[in-house]
UniProtKB/TrEMBL annotation:
Subunit structure comment from the entry: Component of the GSE complex.
Entry's family note: Belongs to the GTR/RAG GTP-binding protein family.
Entry GO terms, CC: fungal-type vacuole membrane; Gtr1-Gtr2 GTPase complex; nucleus
Record keywords: GTP-binding, Nucleotide-binding
PANTHER family, A to Z: RAS-RELATED GTP BINDING RAG/GTR YEAST, RAS-RELATED GTP-BINDING PROTEIN
Protein name: GTP-binding protein
Record GO biological process: cellular response to starvation; negative regulation of autophagy; positive regulation of TORC1 signaling
Length: 300
């Protein structure tokens, strides 16, 4: 959900259709609702509704189509254009959507994306201001005893990795067995003497789960790992895959051996890729690839 031109279809086309950001300027306005079914993990199918944001459509979602639009919602993603001149109207629609959600899907999670952050100079300050404003509006819209489960706000742009951070987090809330996956990835990381192991969805390259940091007390936590490394990897691999497709090559796997660390990225299951990061120079990448091959059946 979100006003017309706020960037909903652009983000969908980047994440789910592998199109580059430069092509989004050609997208036309969405008419009514466009539905996408994305097979995510085995039997888990993500049913994505892109709701065209022109006023006439919004009014119809909130009146005649209300029960169809707000029934069985897992996650509501509301996109706000950071530079909009019509914030007042946006907020009115947003509060009405919250109301629809409370009525028909009270357990749904809510994600607010303050989008097109590339257009503002003071990113930190602007984001904090918008986040506070949205928080106030959310509270204002909540009646007594009707608190929605969770509302999370992200600053995003199609021109950097921030979009992947937000969408990985969104998808993570929809994966029923994320904690079990993390547990298995942690065991796999230990077996590989790896610093960490990350599982990505095959088409979107969104992060599904990661291993947990080692729990032994003698293991020093590493502080040289970039906090944005997951979403940067998603963005870089997606761009690389796009370059491969332009020369009609298919992306299969990736291996890096640097003095500080080695990395292996390879298919784990039909729908996932795994990335193993190792800082121990005695571990051979061939051994990591062998471990992936042997672990495949367990993760299928
Ligand atoms: P409706 O279909 O009418 O509801 O609009 P929409 O929300 O789907 O908007 P759309 O995705 O069509 O994007 C409108 C314009 O915003 C396009 O020209 C995009 O290139 C541009 N845009 C989308 N995301 C960003 C972003 O992160 N930064 C900037 N600068 N422009 C963006």
């Amino acid at each position: 959900m979100g006003a017309s031109g706020s960037g909903k279809t652009s983000m969908r086309s980047l994440i789910f259709s592998n199109n580059p950001a430069s092509l989004t300027a050609r997208l036309g306005a969405t008419i009514d609702v466009e539905q996408n079914h994305v097979r995510f993990l085995g039997d888990l199918i993500l049913n994505l509704w892109d709701c065209g944001g022109q006023d006439a459509f919004m009014d119809s979602y909130l009146t005649t189509q209300r029960s169809t639009i707000f029934q069985h919602v897992g996650v509501l993603i509301y996109v706000f254009d950071v530079e909009t001149n019509e914030m007042h109207k946006d907020l009115e629609y947003y509060r009405d959507c919250l109301d629809g959600l409370r009525q028909f899907s009270p357990d749904a999670a809510v994600f607010l994306l303050v989008h097109k952050m590339d257009l503002v100079r003071d990113k930190g300050g602007t984001f904090e201001r918008k986040k506070k404003e949205l928080q106030e509006q959310t509270e204002k819209g909540q009646g007594p005893g009707q608190v929605l489960t969770s509302v999370t706000t992200f600053g995003t742009s199609i021109y950097d990795e921030s979009l992947y951070r937000a969408w990985s987090s969104i998808v993570h809330t929809l994966i029923p067995n994320a904690a079990v996956l993390s547990k298995h990835l942690t065991i796999f990381a230990e077996a590989c003497s790896a610093t960490e192991v990350i599982l990505f969805e095959r088409t979107t390259f969104l992060v599904i789960a990661t291993s947990n940091p080692p729990s032994e007390p003698e293991a020093e936590p590493r502080n040289d790992l970039e906090p944005t490394r997951y979403e940067r990897t998603s963005e870089l691999i997606k761009a690389f895959k796009h370059s491969c497709s332009r020369v009609r090559e298919e992306f299969h796997a990736l291996e890096m051996e640097l003095p500080e660390f080695s990395a292996v990225l390879d298919e784990m299951t039909k729908n996932t890729y795994v990335l193993i990061i190792v800082h121990d120079p005695t571990i051979e990448t061939a051994a990591l690839r062998l471990n992936i091959r042997m672990a495949r059946r367990k993760f299928e």
